[in-house]
Amino acid sequence: MSELYMLNPAAGCPEPQAARLVSAAYDTIRRRYAEGRHQIGAAIIAADGKVFVGIHLEAMVGRYSVCAEAAALAAARLHSDQQLLAVAAVRYPKPSETAASARIVSPCGGCRELLLDHAPTMQVVIPQGAQGVFAPLQNMLPMKYVGTKWAQLPTTTP
């Protein structure tokens, strides 16, 4: 295995909490990586400091795939009523990407919508050059869809 596969992108995070989240996402996907099935790991931290992780679940029919951020959100909501503070996701390279290393990735548009539905004040670790820095998730989706299902956006599970 190439040394690049061993490089944890948390080393580029100047903020300790961002580094903790990126490390958790990286460790999860490094352990659970399966080509064509699991390539991204995500971690969410709650107000009490607990970290919840998830992995990307690829499906034969692409639209039924589940993003790692959604899996981490489900784990967080299954085990905690705490406010969710921040999320990070890491993409692990395929074996054919010999010159690539694991890297921080931003949530897709669907995950941005989903995360904002459940944690409207959440921060996200985004790649900025060689670093991973926090940004408000709501700034990444400034025109969020607002439906009529809920009277107001929940910050914790009822």
Automatic annotation (TrEMBL):
InterPro entries: APOBEC/CMP_deaminase_Zn-bd, CMP_dCMP_dom, Cyt/Deoxycyt_deaminase, Cytidine_deaminase-like. Residues 16-137 form the CMP/dCMP-type deaminase domain. Keywords: Hydrolase, Metal-binding, Zinc. It holds the Pfam family dCMP_cyt_deam_1. The keyword Glycosyltransferase does not apply. PANTHER family: CYTIDINE DEAMINASE (PTHR11644:SF2). Belongs to the cytidine and deoxycytidylate deaminase family. This is CMP/dCMP-type deaminase domain-containing protein. It comes from Kitasatospora purpeofusca.
